[in-house]
Automatic annotation (TrEMBL), chain A:
Protein known as: Malonate decarboxylase acyl carrier protein
UniProt keyword Transferase, yes or no: no
Post-translational modification: Covalently binds the prosthetic group of malonate decarboxylase.
Pfam families attached to this UniProt entry: ACP
InterPro entries, A to Z: Mal_deCO2ase/Cit_lyase_ACP, Malonate_deCO2ase_dsu
Keywords: Cytoplasm, Phosphoprotein
Species, as recorded: Chenggangzhangella methanolivorans
UniProt keyword ATP-binding present: no
Protein encoded by which gene: mdcC
From TrEMBL, chain B:
Domain Acetyl-coenzyme A carboxylase carboxyl transferase subunit beta: residue ranges: 11-225
Transmembrane segments: none
Organism encoding this protein: Chenggangzhangella methanolivorans
Taxonomic path: Bacteria, Pseudomonadati, Pseudomonadota, Alphaproteobacteria, Hyphomicrobiales
Annotated protein name in UniProt: Biotin-independent malonate decarboxylase subunit beta
Domain of life: Bacteria
GO cellular component, one term: acetyl-CoA carboxylase complex
Coiled-coil stretches noted in the UniProt entry, renumbered to this chain: none
Amino acid sequence: MEHLEFDYDGTGEKPARALALAGVVGSGNLEVLIEAADLGGRCAAVVDTSVRGFGETWRQVLADFFARHGLSDVRVSINDGGATPAVVSLRLDQAAAEIKDAQA
Amino acid sequence: MRVARHSFYEATARKRIDGLLDAGSFREFCGPAARIVSPHLPALGMPVAFDDGVVVGEGTIDGRPVLVAAQEGGFMGGAVGEVHGAKITGLLERALDVKPDAAILLLDTGGVRLHEANAGLVAMGEIQRAALSARHAGVPVIVAIGGKNGCYGGMSIVARSCDWIVASEEGRLSISGPEVIETVEGIEEFDAQDRALVWRTMGAKHRRLIGEIDALVADDVEAFRTAILGFVGRPRPLDLDALEAEHEMLSRRLERFWDCADGRDVWARLGVNDPASVPALDAAGFNGLVDALSGGRP
């Protein structure tokens, strides 16, 4: 296991909902918990992954995610079972779509 | 074959609860934000899940208050670890306090999470005791089986300790899984790769025909909801007479079917005219057959 923590500039609105969960922890899959958090406008990410040595890839995938979605004051927590970057981005997008949706 | 519009089999635990309960009525206990995770998996270098693979809470079904637990079959095969088990036990113990119209368990599991060994085994005993306590208090405990993992191991014993079982054809119910039987008894005794054999032995249709399951439904969340609703507020008797009747039924079954080598032989002896056609029947056709055989637990 490897534990990673990242911190990014916030670039948009606070989320509409308190939290959202996407995905299930399994081989090649992950769960993404995204929560509203008082971070002074910044965004944080915490990753626990079964595969060691991919910290730089995680940093880039998460930077791309926050840049695309324009979020602030959110914390992303991930339990990962060895998902590829494409699957990680998909789950992040699903979680973001849900936390932004006030109707959901 | 028709593809169900809202497949129970394909849905996650959370989607199953969403489809089962009245919209917006579900309130989760110990949800993912609480991060009550397995204390054992990190020591083994394995990832945890924020809900430890089971969703528990309360809500309403057609306006009636119920407690519900749903195992997430995608996380470690729905296997029961210490936290996972404690969440189900706590939910069933809550039934004693709030007296809901039913406690509903959506099971999708291989049984004990062997990584957590004794803690998982202890959890099984605790869940079974809590289920029987809820029943003793007059709260019906309803099981639904229709996920990828079926319902195996200790949880199959729990399921048969409950009031009612609803399953889709995709569901399976057995103590030992196919691979375990093949490993222990040899491939001549049981070929785990023979899926038709597996379903003839453990599948929901067979379990329905021999009286271990109370309703067989299509793989559709709405069909599960309708069938479960039919059992809400309907506890089965749990007393010495009921237990003795159950033992009597099991003894008669052993005498009646002991020499059958295949599920088809059992069905023929039950009066099914064309046993070979049973696996291909859809839920409606199959239930017509069950009705014709007079239904119920033999």
